[in-house]
Design goal:
The complex is a heterohexamer, with three copies of chain A and three copies of chain D.
Chain A lengths: L3 E11 L3 H11 L4 E5 L2 E4 L2 E4 L10 E8 L4 H14 L2 E10 L6
Antiparallel strand pairs in A: 1-5, 1-6, 2-5, 3-4
Helix pairs in contact in A: 1-2
Chain D lengths: L2 H9 L2 H14 L8 H26 L3 H28 L4 H12 L3 H13 L8 H7 L3 H13 L9 H9 L2 H28 L3 H23 L5 H25 L3 H12 L5 H9 L5 H31 L2
Helix pairs in contact in D: 1-15, 2-11, 3-10, 3-11, 4-5, 4-7, 4-8, 4-12, 5-8, 5-15, 6-13, 6-15, 9-14, 11-15, 12-13, 12-15, 13-15
Classes of the chains: A alpha+beta, D mainly alpha.
The structure holds adenosine monophosphate (3 copies) and sodium ion (3 copies).
The site of one sodium ion has 9 residues of chain D, from helix 5.
Chain lengths: 103, 103, 103, 326, 326, 326
Amino acid sequence: MEMHSKKRIEILLEAPAQKRLTDLLDRLDVTGYTVMPVLGGKGHHGVWSREGLPSAAGTMVSVSVIAAEERLDQVLEPVFDLVRRHIGIVTISDVMVIRGERF
Amino acid sequence: MEMHSKKRIEILLEAPAQKRLTDLLDRLDVTGYTVMPVLGGKGHHGVWSREGLPSAAGTMVSVSVIAAEERLDQVLEPVFDLVRRHIGIVTISDVMVIRGERF
Amino acid sequence: MEMHSKKRIEILLEAPAQKRLTDLLDRLDVTGYTVMPVLGGKGHHGVWSREGLPSAAGTMVSVSVIAAEERLDQVLEPVFDLVRRHIGIVTISDVMVIRGERF
Amino acid sequence: MSILDLAVQNLASPMVLFFALGVAAALIRSDLAVPEAAAKLLALYLMLAIGFKGGAEVSKSGLDSAMALTIGAGILLSFLIPLAGYFFIRMSTRLGAIDAAAVAAHYGSISIVTFVAATEVVKGLGLAYEGYLIAVAAVMETPAIVAALLLARRAQPKGQAGESMGALLREVATNGSIVILVGAFFIGWITGERGMSMISPFIVDPFRGILCLFLLDMGLVAGRGLRQGARELSPPLIAFGIYFPLVSASLAAALAVPLGLSVGGAALFITLAASASYIAVPAAMRLALPEANPAIYLTLSLGVTFPFNLSLGIPLYAAVAQRIAG
Amino acid sequence: MSILDLAVQNLASPMVLFFALGVAAALIRSDLAVPEAAAKLLALYLMLAIGFKGGAEVSKSGLDSAMALTIGAGILLSFLIPLAGYFFIRMSTRLGAIDAAAVAAHYGSISIVTFVAATEVVKGLGLAYEGYLIAVAAVMETPAIVAALLLARRAQPKGQAGESMGALLREVATNGSIVILVGAFFIGWITGERGMSMISPFIVDPFRGILCLFLLDMGLVAGRGLRQGARELSPPLIAFGIYFPLVSASLAAALAVPLGLSVGGAALFITLAASASYIAVPAAMRLALPEANPAIYLTLSLGVTFPFNLSLGIPLYAAVAQRIAG
Amino acid sequence: MSILDLAVQNLASPMVLFFALGVAAALIRSDLAVPEAAAKLLALYLMLAIGFKGGAEVSKSGLDSAMALTIGAGILLSFLIPLAGYFFIRMSTRLGAIDAAAVAAHYGSISIVTFVAATEVVKGLGLAYEGYLIAVAAVMETPAIVAALLLARRAQPKGQAGESMGALLREVATNGSIVILVGAFFIGWITGERGMSMISPFIVDPFRGILCLFLLDMGLVAGRGLRQGARELSPPLIAFGIYFPLVSASLAAALAVPLGLSVGGAALFITLAASASYIAVPAAMRLALPEANPAIYLTLSLGVTFPFNLSLGIPLYAAVAQRIAG
Ligand SMILES: Nc1ncnc2c1ncn2[C@@H]1O[C@H](COP(=O)(O)O)[C@@H](O)[C@H]1O
Ligand SMILES: Nc1ncnc2c1ncn2[C@@H]1O[C@H](COP(=O)(O)O)[C@@H](O)[C@H]1O
Ligand SMILES: Nc1ncnc2c1ncn2[C@@H]1O[C@H](COP(=O)(O)O)[C@@H](O)[C@H]1O
Ligand code: NA
Ligand code: NA
Ligand code: NA
């Protein structure tokens, strides 16, 4: 099967800022994104857990974007600009996809 | 620690078709799979969100399979065949595992 | 954008043992970890599903740690020691991060 | 009560207003949300409660041939309405055959929440209704799907069908919402008054309040659908979402008299015909006709027809029932 | 009421029927499901309600030495039953020492939902029971785990034990289900009648209905477990899951008379002994004896013993209590 | 009732005790937990119920100028309290300007659960209160955020502000908790007694019990916050979390008399001023002042001020209201 090499950007971000991030992604014209839940974690800001919280404050989400390598910097810079002001981390990894023209 | 190189296939698929996919994986005789929840996303089919939906329609799940490289095509072809008819995307990436004989 | 190469360790572990793992990670002095939910799966121990279960037994969670390559073995050995006694699998993959000094 | 009074009273009920609140909240992009798990729990509760109550009613009134006849009529309607719907859609809109068949399936099937809202209106009018209408609701979920598949197959290239109809029907018939509805119905029937007295503080007393919460959620989902999916709906399609329930209602009304249904029963039977599914059928369509665009059928059913029925349709059907039955 | 009448009436109760509905739905592979978060909320509700009611009862009746004695008897039973169970399993099945110890632990501990179902049967017979039995239930959760660990250690290679028993017991004693049960018990005790009048529309009136919903979920989980785990269970093991509760029940019955329990109290005390844990102990076993196969103990406890107790066991224990106590 | 009796009775209420149970469970590191989805459902229920009841009260009593005046006073307080709070924090602690502004915002806004707990105490004293205080609660959520932003901007380097205040206010005003509170208030107002009779078995009867469950959850979250965030809180900051509510309460008490509030109404108005937000404002602060440390403001508001108000504050405010109003 023919496969195409792409980049996967994963943004772990505090939940209250999620809408800002997805609005930004909309403006950046990525072909899509996927939001996944996070139960908890630990980092420099201490321990987090989603349990029992009735509001978004104190919880995180993970937003992934699959994009072509040549679009990487274009997406990463504004995204990182937003994430820097918030609690969050950004990781980038390699993935292969099948319908390459879709990303 | 000795590590073995494997492939990780991640299938993001609309939830109503989940059982079809896992039934297919059973028939393909993979050693296992893992299902993770997805909160929402955006793509060519528009924006999705899991919130408030009492049924599976309109939601997605992520199914990952770790497999040996030599089994990749054998698994990918029928899986992609199924995914093509549905809303979903397939990505493949490299992972290392420790108990290599298990996958 | 300058990026730094790191390792991402993902531990899929039965939920009752989660606290043991995160306590271990605390002792190992990793810079952080992230816990994500798992809905279900299948492996040598059979089929799992989170649905309807009022207790942690019979469910799994995914714990990811991003760490510098040189710390990998230091983290992996005790982690794998714990996971070996339980139901769980460990995968390692490459990721790039932006604020490299944080991991 | 005049039909206008009825409509006004219905529009000013907490149920309709909470639905409207949900729609409004979605339209102003509020982050108000009912978690998915909570929405599923509420839906489960409503189906368990309505099924059990129906069964308990039947245990009181006993069985008669009217039940079998009405069930048969329901099956017939559920099969025929999609054919009519398909015809109207193809004549009046630009939808292709697959999309048209998928939409039509939704209108042949039923919306249990619309049914529940109608029982509240019927009870508000001091009317009783036949408990077995729950069973009629359950049997009306599936035939529409068969009809839609037959319609779609004519349009599909041979061999591409993929799934066998048998496998699909098995999946649809073991659908959770049907199982809990039918199961609770039989449990209500078996345990009768004794069972009812045991669990009525759970399934009767707080029922309306919980329905309000669920309708708030439905409003949120419908509003979000409208915001995102409105551009998929052409004016003729929106019109279909409003006039076609009246077509289905007329078919049901014509059957209600010979079936000998009570006034309340006729109102509910008409409501079933006029309502469109947005839980069981969308999931079935994703399996049966994955090529059909879900934004179209979900938005039309939940964003147009459901609010129409909830606000104006139900009082209208009740008024019609008062004229023709009784 | 004769024991047969009692059994029939119990089998035809909404509680048992909803459990059966869940099992049936799982066996026909329906997608009916209670979301995890909802199941946890329901479990929390049941434990809060039953704990509070027990405490409120004790605040009415006051303390007496019977309470201390019954608690002591409960601890003893919870410790001894696993030893007996281990013996029977090793004699009659091919399970290894670790698996046998893990299974035995479940039978020494208790199932709070079985207890709750038994209180409904007892109340249905017009019987009262000692409120402090909730406290007995709480103390019976843990000793069985200790007994099982002692059994397993004899079989394990030295040094491999890993976890200290102290750490494990701390984890088990702060288990959420014990904390809410005991906490609500004390709150019910402290606030007494005043507290009860404040929250009884929440914890008393809808209790049975919510129990039905939870039992539906338990049925779904049990049915799924049976479908997937049945091949792990040999016929002698299945037999154990049915006859061993009778052994435990006999031990408890022998103690109930000298303890001076009321008829209702004796029925519940026997039920506690006969019931097998499927919430607290499975999680503890994953930590204490991770080598044991969870499919075996979960399927046996939830798929065999729980339905047996729910349907036939409880009426039997109630009938025995009526003979021996009062 | 003397203030001491009132405090004792309040401390021994199921509500306060379940909160304490939650705190204790978190401190002993129990795994007791309320799932996130359940916590959100409970919060939604409480806001829907309290909003609806307020609206239904207003529909009974009718509108008067007192309502407009009290709303105005609430807005004023919500704006002024953060200024006072900022001053106290900067004088007495080492917090920087941004952290101080973020903390101050929480105290200008309100905690709806504290309000709800106070209504229970007020009702327990046999007092009535003005239904429109719900509307006052709703309008007091936002102005504090504006005040805090103005404070923070003085301290921030120019140009770095990022978000426009307009965009932020839009987000805050469409916050889910405000929308459901205000929406339910209007629905209660419109449907009045008829609506209330339809849904009171859901929103009135089980209300206190559900509140207990929610307070258990709040206790768990507060206890976890204390365990993890305590080292962020210096003694002067902890002191602020206890004395500053008394400052806010005094301001509100001074306004309550000229506003002509009833005794119950004055108690609630004072409670609103004294309470600190831990749902809406923390989320807003993450957007508006992301540089502020959430561990500080969440721990102080939920771990210190909330328990203080719940246990001692509310009876005190009620006692003050009995002196000054009526
Ligand atoms: N080394 C790491 N590996 C995995 N996740 C991390 C790591 N560091 C931080 N995180 C996640 O990012 C969140 C915020 O990190 P921090 O800003 O360092 O508190 C944490 O709560 C974790 O969920
Ligand atoms: N570029 C992308 N990156 C990440 N996820 C995507 C991307 N494109 C699509 N998706 C996900 O796949 C789903 C279906 O995609 P589509 O079929 O394009 O609508 C979306 O709702 C997203 O969750
Ligand atoms: N090949 C695989 N690919 C993805 N996930 C797997 C695989 N094998 C096992 N798993 C996951 O790991 C869990 C435990 O595996 P096992 O110990 O083999 O039963 C399974 O329930 C799956 O969730
Ligand atoms: Na219909
Ligand atoms: Na037992
Ligand atoms: Na305040």
